Structures are given as structure tokens and as C-alpha cells.
Amino acid sequence: MAKKKKITVQKFGGTSVATAEKIKAAAQRAIAAARGGNQVIVVASARGKQTDHLIADALELNPNPPKREMDQLLSTGEQQTVSLMAMAIEAMGHKAISMTGSQIKMVTDSVHTKARIKSIDANRIKKHLNKGCIVIVAGFQGVDENENITTLGRGGSDTSAVALAATVKADTCEIYTDVDGIYTTDPRIFKDAVKMEMISYDEILEMASLGAGVMHGRSIEFGKKYNVVIHVRSSMSEKTGTLITHEVPKMEGILVSGATIEKNLAKISLIGVNNKPGNAAKIFAHLAQAKVSVNDIIQTEVSNEKANISFTVSKNDFADAQKTVEEIKKKVNCQDAFYRQDIAEISVIGVGMRTHCGVANMMFSTLAKAKINIDSITTSEIRISCLVDKDQGDKALISVCKTFELDKPVEKRSYVK
Amino acid sequence: MAKKKKITVQKFGGTSVATAEKIKAAAQRAIAAARGGNQVIVVASARGKQTDHLIADALELNPNPPKREMDQLLSTGEQQTVSLMAMAIEAMGHKAISMTGSQIKMVTDSVHTKARIKSIDANRIKKHLNKGCIVIVAGFQGVDENENITTLGRGGSDTSAVALAATVKADTCEIYTDVDGIYTTDPRIFKDAVKMEMISYDEILEMASLGAGVMHGRSIEFGKKYNVVIHVRSSMSEKTGTLITHEVPKMEGILVSGATIEKNLAKISLIGVNNKPGNAAKIFAHLAQAKVSVNDIIQTEVSNEKANISFTVSKNDFADAQKTVEEIKKKVNCQDAFYRQDIAEISVIGVGMRTHCGVANMMFSTLAKAKINIDSITTSEIRISCLVDKDQGDKALISVCKTFELDKPVEKRSYVK
Q1: DSSP class of residue B250?
Q2: CB-based contact B349:B261 (threshold 8 Å)
Q3: Which of A34, B44, B320, B346 is the most exposed place for a label (fewest CB within 10 A)?
Q4: Residue B233 belongs to a domain
Q5: CB pairs under 8 A, 24+ apart, for A360-364?
């Protein structure tokens, strides 16, 4: 009996399929994997700016388009890419078949524009793989139980790829993109940033939630839940990229894996709030009602009766947040409210923090030495974040990166044992 | 109990949905019908030149794209239109839902790019109609029994509309287009052509097969088979257009309903073919094998042993036809073959011919009076066609139109009783 073939999932994002030449390059990569003895599933996004164009078409007709119809519209972008890629692969002499979310029965819930995957019919894909086809699946889309087309929201094609890899028990899940992996920090600010070989799901989740924008959180959560090792790599080169995996012991020695900066933030402080049970809940319930998404929250007691409550929100939500706070102020006996939009949040992330003390201290003294004032601090188990003046944000990030030697490969850092 | 509502099908072609303004106009028309007490099904084509653009994208990647993938690609055009139109209708305050061929289970055979409809699930549409939605269905597309997307070929959206009208037993089936109905002849050549109020399925079928290009033959056949009265009308006005119906008695008085000219023709003549059984079959079998579609055939005996065989083909097929004839010539003992590309075919069509003699004579003497030589003549029960020099084509058409008074409404023609 023939040896069971390995299964590879390759995901190509919008920029990697934007032109005919790029589709051909992606097609060649899929064929190379197939000729190398793999069964290959390709997941593709809509081409280049197509989704933006479709959204513009929609808004011209309806400033608030029904979400079901938006999904029906946007899903055509991926459908076009996958059929074109199947044509390209066939032109190069390999069998290929394209599949929509509906055709592979990628069943989701009915929450249009941010649906969650419930199940995928692996047999529909395997049938074609076993016939020797490269199967090209439209990312980002599924169908609910009534055959309405749904989409998975931001980063949805990554989620499709990881979910498919989990469903067919793929051996590898490659995410092709226009960068050659995930960097220790944003190279536009710290030009000596280096590519990470490996990062844990938890670390990348902290980075993603801070807006590092490499991969969307949901696809990472999927990978973590179903043990899919995700390989983020460049569609323009053969170099290994960054592996996103479960935590392995050697990661512990790396105090800080990466650092991020978030500038699209505003900070809101409520001063002298009556410190009685339910007051904080009241504030955040009103913000939730106004659809304001709150990031970090800091509450400090000023006296037995009074507390100060601060929190950060995305700048996009700032106007709504301010309006809500002004409305609620009196109800919670708040003496005053302050608003700051000139802040930046610098964060360092690393699973090593769990077992090593001193990381926070290294960060604070670095900022002190650089004469950067820390407005406030929040932490999670594997993250330390400081709010600083926006003007000093880049300088703060660079100082921190130097301290944690994020310009060197892991094995060359002085603090890594 | 409430009175059962009438059901209206409205089909909008590519030019009628090309811009946001045109989509809004179509949406308004659908809403007007709904507010007038109808249940409304809209069938829409891909916007403007979109199908052409998608075909160009495909050919850039594969000069001979697999037909299944072509269907997967092209079907996105209609899907985009229907979701956009649903958004437009919702923006105007009426409930709407868009449906793909797959979502209404428009099941076809598996002949990609020219599939034939096998069944439609009327309940899927009626469910939404009964909820008060305008249902907007993607024309031109279906799915085969394995959920592969299929398309219906040229004029497919018309076929979708007529098939839907038949399935839901619609009271009217309106085909909106950029002309205000079907004219007695091409007004670009005979500027006094008038709009017909009514024409029979059989007549329009003869006109369609002659390239009059109003509606594709298959949709007419569907209408004829399932008794759907088709109303061809303008998307830019409220005027009644042309009704395509079963033959009614009063049509018999109209000797000639319309006249056509076809210039995209070539004529091939095989001279002195051995007149023995099977020779003609051999010729046309070879042409069929070369995928040449043969129009009219004329065979004349020259002697007991010899015959001349002539036929016309579309100019697009001429090169293939010529090659085939040159190959087959010796096998059928043909003495010579002649090729003409400088011809035009003038036809008059009318069910009245069945019961009235003299139409052929009127046509021939008209051409004689205009000093136009007739190369050859073919007829069907309701059609007479003459091949003439291409240079004289327009003049011939105009003369014939004048003779049969195709510049006048039916009731004002001198020969109509």
C-alpha cells in the first residue's frame, strides 16, 4: 500500500494574489508542494483592494447595508481568487479544483460579518485530494445552516486556513504574506528588529491584541485549541519564517520575545468616584451599551470612600466613550474626568516572565534612564505595558528593545541562558 | 382570508444595473410593483462589462480555462449585483433578500458554461416572498447535483427569469432592457422601424436564430413550453414594451411581423458532389466534428450523378469550415468548392405566411425592382430568407421593410385585414 501522503495547507493573503504574476507564483508554490509528495490545500483571500472596492460599491447604495447582504457581496472576492488560481494551476499542468465555503460545507453560526466556524466537511476536500487535485478553498467565508453565506471577520482567511488544517489533520499550515515572518518589534521604528524563529500562541495573542497586526487573534486561538503549528512566511522567498506553536521549554529562557507600541489609544480617567460596590460596573456597563471596547483598566483607591478609575480605549471609540462618561459622571458621584489622546502604550511580551523576576524592573529603569515618564502601568502574566507621552513613544520602544536585545537572535542575547 | 397576491418577475440585464444610479432605478421599480400589491422576484445579470473583465482575468492565467472554474468565476458577477440590489431596496425601506442559484436550488445538468435547468425549489423563494421580501435572484447561474456552480450560457439570465416565472406560476415576467421593446427590424438600418406590441414565440425564435439579438432562443423556448408571457420593455420608461406570447388568431392577418439582416455569414458551395447516399451526411458529420455550426443548407441536383451542396456558417466558424471542406473534398468526389464572405441574409418572418400565399413573391419582386440579385433562397414555415451581396444588404432590408410596411403599426398596414 502506498505511504499516506502528508497534507499541507498554504494560505495566500490579498497582497499575495493581487496580480496575475502573483497568482502564478502562488500556483507554482502549491504545485511544488504537491510534486514534493504532499496533498495540498490552498486557502486564498480576495485580491488586493477588491474587498475595499466592494465595500465602496455597497456604501454608495446603502450607508448601513444589511450584514447578510454584505457577506453575500464580499464572499465573491475570494470566490474569484480561487477559481483564477485553479485555472493558473491547471495551465501549469496540475489538477486543481476551487471550492467556496458553501461547497466544502464550512458551517458557521449566523452572526454575519463575524461568524464563528462550527464544522467543516473534511470528506468533501479529501475526495478531491485523493483524486490528485490541489484543492483551493475560498478563505474568510462559510455558510450558516440555512445556506446563507457568512464571513468570518478580520483575519478570516487565516482562521479558515487554520481551521482547515485542524479538520484534515494537516502536517503543516503555512501562512504566506508579504513579510518574511514575525519580528521582535516593528522594524519601521526599531530598524534592527529581527525575525523570530518561533513564538508561542499565548505570546502572539498578546501581541495581536496590542495591534501588532501579524495575525488575527481568532486564528491563533484556533491553532492553540487544535494544535496546529502555524508557519508565517514570505510568498516572495524560500526562507523559513516564524513558527507559532505551543510553548516549549526553551522559550522560558527568553525573558522578552517581542515588544509592541500602540499609538491609536486614548486614556480616560474618572477622579474621585464614590467607592461603593457596583459603581465601576455601572460605568463599564454604560460603555458597553455605547459599543465602546475598553482595553486596560486601572483602579486606585484614594481614600476609604473615593477611588480613581482609568481606562484606555481605541481612538476610534474615543468620542463615544467621552460622551458616555460625561453622561454617567454624576450618577457615580465622580468629581472630575480627564481625557488624554497624546499617549502611547509600550509593551514587552514573553512567557519567560512567568518564571523570571526582574523584567518589570529592567523595563522601568530603561525608561527612567531615557528620561521617559511613565503615566501608568498594567501587566498580564506574560506582558508588561507602560503608557507614556506619545511624543516619546518611539524613543521608549527603541530603548526597551535595546535593553532586551531584540536586535539579536535569541541564542546571542546576553540574558538568555 | 387575504386575497392571494399576484407574482411578478422582473429581470434586469447588465446595462440596467451598470451604475449605482441604475441599480437604484431598478430597485425603485421593484418596490413600486411590491407596493402595487405584487409579490416581486427580481432576476439580475452581472453589471455592465464585469463579465468581460472576469474573462480577461481568466485568459491572462489560462488561455483555455477549465469550464467548471470559469463558471465558478463568472457566477460572482451576478452574485455581486443581487446583493447590491438587496442593499439598495433595503435603503429605500422595503425588505429584500438576495439569492444565488445555489441558494434557490436552481439545479442544472453538469454541462458547464451552457447548463440546462432541471428544477428550481419554488418553496425557497416563496418562503421569503410570504415574509414580504422582494427576492433578488442571481440570473445566469445554477448548481449541478454535486453543488458545482454552473452557468446557462448566452442569454442565461433571461432563461433564469422565464424559468422562475414558470416555477412560481408568476402572473407576469418582465424583461427590462435598454430598448423599449422589440422592433419590426433593426432601426439602425431602417430608421422608421416600429415597436411591435406583440409577437409569437415561434416568430421571435426565428428572429433570434437569425441573430436579431433581442432575447436568446432558449429563454423563448422555455416561455413557450411553460406558457410564460414575456414582456420585453425599457428600464428607462413606463411605456408598455413588446409581449411575447402564444400565437393568437389576429396574428395571422399580419403577413410579416419583422425582418432581419445577418451580415456575419459566409457561404460555402461544393460543386459536383457525387450524388450517392451518405455523401451529404459525410460532409456535415465532418463539419460537426470540427465544431462548425451550419445554418441553412441548399442541395440541388445537377444531373443524375452530381449535386451542388451549399450552406452558410457564421464568419467565426469560417476558417474551420474551409479547412474541413478542403480535407473532405476528395472523399466525396467534389469537383470544386467556392467560398463567399461578402454576403448578407435578408429574412422576413411572420406566422401569417402559414395561411397566406404571395409573401415570397412580394419579397422577390421587391428585390428585383431594387435591382438586387438573389444568390439563393431558403424558407421555413414562417420565414423566407434571401442571400444577397453584402454591399446591397442594407438597401435590400429597407426595400423589404417598405413593402411589408414595417414602419407602421399593424392595424395601419394596407395588407392587414
Answers
A1: G
A2: no
A3: B320
A4: no
A5: A360/A384, A362/A255, A362/A403, A362/A404, A363/A400, A363/A403
Residue identified by cell 409569437 is: B200
Nearest to A153 by CA among A77, A209, A48, A74: A74
Q: How sure is the predictor about A143, in pLDDT bands with cuts at 50, 70 and 90?
A: very high
How far apart CA B311 and CA B299 sit, in angstroms, is 9
Give one word for B207, left, alpha or beta, with left for phi > 0 and alpha for psi -120 to 50.
Answer: alpha
Q: Are B30 and B156 members of one domain?
A: yes
Q: How is residue A141 written as a grid cell? A: 467565508
Residue B175 has pLDDT above 70, yes or no: yes
DSSP label of B416? -
Reduced to 3 states (helix: H, G, I; strand: E, B; else coil), residue B71 is: helix
Closest chain A C-alpha to B90 CA, distance in angstroms: 8
B61 touches A at CB < 8 Å:
yes
pLDDT at B153: 87
Bridge pairing between strands B38-44 and B134-138: parallel
pTM for the model: 0.86
What one-character-per-residue DSSP string does B316-345 give? GGHHHHHHHHHHHTGGGT--EEEEEEEEEE
Task: Tell me what ipTM this predicted complex has.
Answer: 0.85
Q: Which residue on chain A is closest to B64 by alpha carbon?
A: A91
Helices and strands per DSSP (H, E), number in chain B: 11, 18
Mean pLDDT, to the nearest integer, of B295-319?
89
Positions of E strands within B169-213: 172-177, 198-200
Taking only the tens place, the pLDDT of each residue in A88-140 is 999 999 999 999 999 999 999 999 998 999 999 999 999 999 999 999 999 99
Nearest to A65 among B64, B68, B87 (CB): B87
Q: Which residues pair with A384 in a beta bridge?
A: A348, A379
Q: B183 in a domain, yes or no? A: no
Task: Tell me the three state secondary structure of residue A187.
Answer: coil
pLDDT of residue B218: 87
In this structure, are residues A90 and A23 in contact, taking their beta carbons and an 8 Å threshold? no
Pairwise CB contact (< 8 Å): B80 & A147: no
* CA atoms of A276 and A259, how far apart (whole Å): 37
Look-up: residue for cell 481568532?
A: A218
Residue among B266, B280, B274 at smallest CA distance from B335: B274
Q: Which has more confidence, A416 or B312?
A: B312
B209 found inside a domain:
no
C-alpha cell at B11: 429581470
Number of domains in chain A: 1
Answer with the one of B136, B162, B178 that is the final residue of a domain. B178
CATH code, domain with A82: 3.40.1160.10
How far apart are the C-alpha atoms of A267 and A139, rounded to whole Å? 36
CATH of the domain at B368: 3.30.2130.10
Distance from the Cα of A320 to chain B's closest Cα (Å) equals 25
Nearest to B248 by CA among B286, B198, B322: B198
Alpha helix ranges (H) inside A113-255:
122-130, 156-167, 201-209, 217-226
Sequence-ordered list of residues with C-beta below 8 angstroms from that of B273, at least 6 positions apart, any chain = B279, B280, B283, B306, B307, B308, B309, B332, B333, B334, B335
Whose grid coordinates read 456604501? A59
Q: Flag whether residue A42 sits within 8 Å of chain B, measured between CB atoms.
A: no
Integer angstrom CA distances of residue A388 from A260, A268, A340, A397, B162: 13, 14, 11, 10, 67
Q: Is A100 on the interface with B (CB under 8 A)?
A: yes
Report the distance separating Cα B10 and Cα B84, nearest Å: 16
Last residue of a domain, one of B178, B203, B225: B178
Cell of A35: 510534486
Angle B113-B11-B240 from CA coordinates, rounded to 5°: 140
B196: in domain: no
Neighbours of B109 (CB within 10 A): 14
